[in-house]
Structures are given as C-alpha cells and as structure tokens.
Amino acid sequence: MEPIVLIHGYSAESKESTPAAIAKIYGTLPEALRAAYGSEAVVEIDLSRYVSLEDGVTLDDISRALDRALTTDFAHLVPGPFHVITHSTGALVIRNWIRMAGRKPSPIRNLIHLAGAHLGSGWAHIGKGQLAKWARMVFQAGAERGVQVLDALEFGSDRTLDLHLHFLHSETAMASVYGVREYSIVGSQPAVEWYPIPIRYAKEDGSDGVVRVAASNLNMHYLRFGPTAAALALAWKDASGELGKHLRRRGARQSLYELKDSSLPGEGERPEIPFAIPYECAHTGKDLGIVVGTHPRDQVLRLVRQALETPAAEWSSRVADFRTELDATYQKVLTQQAPSWWKKWIEEPRAQYDRHAQLIFRIRDQDGRPVLHHDIFLDSVQGKGDPSLPVGSLFEDKHVNETSPHIIAFYLRADAFSASDETWVPRIPQVNGCFFEVTATEPETDEVLYLPMRFEFSKDDLIGWVRGHRTTIVDVELLRLPSPNVYRMVRFAG
User: H/E element holding 99?
Assistant: First the structure.
C-alpha cells in the first residue's frame, strides 16, 4: 500500500503531536488503517496539521504551505503515488493544492473526502459573526476565527465555485488529466446532542449537522445561460420595453436567453464520482462522527478501504459499489423510530434523510462583473385547480453570500418521507415546470439597463437538472446595455 496522507478540517488544529492531541483530531482512524493493512503493508501514514483560525490566513496560504511541507519535509511523496483522506475543509485545501500545483498527472491517486465541505456550510456565515467571536474568546481563549477560510466555506463563495468548475473542463478534468480518482462519503445524521441548539444548520434535514449532503457530493450539476443572437441585436428602445414588461410581470415577453453550456456527471466524458452515505453518521462527535466516531466506524472504514484499494481500471465500478452502501443505509433508516427523549426536537427521524438539493445562482454581466442589484423569480407553470406542487413549496432556506452578494444559494427538499407509504416520495416530478426569471438594475445611473432573463424549465428539465443529494450551479450572464446617450457621434457640417 502506498503512503496515506490525512488532512483535517477547519478548527481541528493543535501544535502538539501527543497521542491525545492526534486522537482529538483523527480519532483512531490512523490505528484502524494500520490494523486493516498490517504494519508492513502500509508504507506510511502522514498526519497533516495546518492553521485555520488565524484571520489573516487564506485557503491559498494553506494550500501553498501544504506544497512547501511536501517539497521540503516529505519530498519523497512528490513523485507519487500516494493517497489522501480529507475531512471537511481539508477537501478544499487539497483540491486547491491540486489546481495550484498544476502537476499533470498529480502524485495523488485515490482522494477520499469524508464530509467534504466542497460547496459550503451554513456554519461559515455564523462563524464570522460577533457571537462566534465571543464564544471563541470564552471557550478557546482566542479572538480570531479564521474569517478568510470561512469566506471560502460560506455558501456561494465565488472563488470556491471557480475552484470546483476548474475540474469540470475537459482540459483540466480531475480524473482524466490530473489522474486523481475521487470519492465522496458524508453522513446525514447530526449528533443528537446538537438538536437543542437554536440554529437550523445544527439539525438541518439532509445534513450531518455541519455540511449538507448536497454540498458535499462532488457530483454537481452545472448550467450556464447567456443572451441569444437576437438579444445582442436588440435596440435600446426594444430592450427598455422588455424590461418594462418584466417589471410589470405581464404581457408577452421574449425568450432572449438560452442555455450555453451544461455539465452533468455520467454524461459525455465526465465521470460520476462514487458517493455514499453511512448509516447514523454525523460530521463530528465521539459517537457518530465520521472521523472520530465509534458507531459508523466499520461502514466508514469499509468504504475507505474500497476506495484505497481501487485501481484505475475499476474506479467506475465503485459508483455501483458505493450506491449499494447508500441503498443499505436507507433500508436501515426505514426501521428508525424516534426515542421518547427525542420527541421535543424531532418527531420523524426518517425525515432527516430526506434527499435535498442545493441551487446556487451566480449573476454576472457579459464582461464577468458581478451584478449586485438583482431579483430572481421561480414561477410555477400552474393553472387554476392544477394539482401539481408550486415550485416555491420545495424551498426551505436561502442564503445571499456576504462577500459576493451576486451569488445566492437555495436549499430545497427534493424527496419527502411518507409515513403512510413507508418510503420517500419524489417531489420535483410533482412540479409542472417553472419559469426562471432574473431582473437587475444599475442604481447609480439611468443610462444603463440589464436585459431581463426569462427561461422556461419543463418538468423533464427540472427532473434532470435538480436532483436530491446534489448541487446545481447556475451561471447567468445578463446583458448590460448602455443607452444611446452614453456615446454619440455627429457629422461635422463645417
């Protein structure tokens, strides 16, 4: 077995290397790996330590420091191959390092993400607040919270979106170009003691108490919309008329935008990444924690071993193997009953495993500049007496990114557990399509307008592009138009 490098998550740091300090960060995972393969089979297990609670330290700083540690202290790893197991924020650290280092192929072979915080955590925004600062001062004797790392972890981080989209391009694809085989493993069961915390992210359905399953699963969807040729040829007067119709929300409106690009896992050259949810597995905690917990340890270790032992030729088959583990988890969940002492916090424990989807919209103009003052509408295609679900009934949370307000993340319940049916009922197919509309304004001048967008998603579009346990990233390029008054030319008559 090649060397294995473990990379921890946000705030799990210590300057000590004592067994107690290591156990606090990695639990018994290093010993379990050693026992699984034997002391002679495992060449080495390297435990990473990095600083994440310094406000001045960025994700790029940590990734560069990782590169320095590799090239100076562990130079024998650089030629490769070696394997990596990450937890939480460690997923961003290593993916960012792979991109920044630019080694093609990378020396990493199998990259296993345990509760990887790929597309954010609701706790990141809370962690940047004043209350979190006070808590840090009282309980950890420090005032800094690693705000720039938390920026990368906030829902809809601009730079984090670009990081992940980098690996969707064929010329920089993670598997075929960098040679890295990735795996996503995440729980969907917050620790029971977290339920009294009056913060939704501590006990959010479809999450492990810190990271949403949809945000952790690397099988993200990507859609990019832009103006049509007809939109580009539109005169100012006609564009202004279209804007007026949108603001009044009545009258026949043209379809002036189209889907320019899309990427779905398992389609074309893009592979699907093995993904699994262990049973009763939380983000952290000595009982249910995915890294240090004792309860899910056997299943987590089984999945980790499957990944570590996967040669290139068998990677695609691991998708089915991991799905078998996922299905087994849901079969176990069907038998769950809420203990009496849970009743105050949760009535139906099986709803915790309802499949959720995350939608992230990023609004920019044709030059790539953020469009800060915008509105997004998702209107159902429903007639009077239509029994279909209104699309708005699926949404449960909305977050506008603090640093990049042109990016907004929505969280919706894609499937819902039905006690009468004793199974999960898909909700997205019950939505009879919807209109996706974006309007924007430039508040500093009347001499510029944004051509509004209106695009119809059919029922089949929604089923294909919005799926439970996954995030759909939607890039919108709004056409920004200056009025004729901004620049004029006249013929000299002299």
Answer: helix 90-101
pLDDT of residue 18: 63
Contacts of 93 (CB under 8 A, 6+ apart): 7, 50, 59, 62, 63, 66, 86
pLDDT of residue 388: 80
Coil, strand or helix at 254? coil
What six digits make up the tokens of 111?
């990259």
Q: Beta strands of 25-129 (E only): which ranges?
A: 45-47, 82-87, 108-114
CA 486 to chain centre: 41
Pairing relation of β-strands 108-114 and 82-87? Answer: parallel
Q: Cis peptide leading into 405, omega within 30 of 0?
A: no
| Cβ neighbours for 300, distance < 8 A, ≥ 6 positions apart | 114, 185, 278, 281, 290
Query: How far, in Å, CA of 34 to CA of 39, rounded?
Result: 6
Cα separation values, 92 from 71, 114, 161, 400, Å:
20, 12, 11, 21
What gap in Å lies between CA 477 and CA 368, rounded to an integer? 8
Q: Where are the alpha helices (DSSP H) in 209-317?
A: 213-216, 229-232, 236-248, 297-308
Q: Class of 4-220+265-342 per CATH?
A: alpha beta
Whether residue 426 is preceded by a cis peptide bond, meaning omega within 30 degrees of 0, is no
- pLDDT of the residue at 132: 42
pLDDT means per 10 residues in the chain (494 residues)?
85 62 76 79 65 80 92 90 94 96 95 96 76 40 70 95 97 97 95 84 93 98 97 92 80 84 94 97 92 92 95 94 97 77 66 96 98 93 71 95 96 94 94 93 95 94 97 98 93 83
Sign of torsion over alpha carbons 117, 123, 126, 127: negative
Distance CA 154, CA 160 (A): 9
Distance between CA atoms of 357 and 467, rounded to whole angstroms?
A: 6
Cβ neighbours of residue 363 under 8 Å, at least 6 residues apart?
370, 371, 374, 376, 406, 407, 438, 440, 476, 478
Name 107's bridge partners.
none
Rg of the Cα trace of the chain? 24
- Specify the 3-state DSSP secondary structure of 393: helix
Task: Report the distance separating Cα 262 and Cα 465, nearest Å.
Answer: 9
Q: Are 143 and 133 in contact (CB under 8 A)?
A: yes
CB 13 within 8 A of CB 52: yes
What are the extents of the domains in the chain?
A: 4-220+265-342, 221-260+354-486
Closest CA to 271 of 225, 319, 232: 319
Tokens of 92: 């961003």
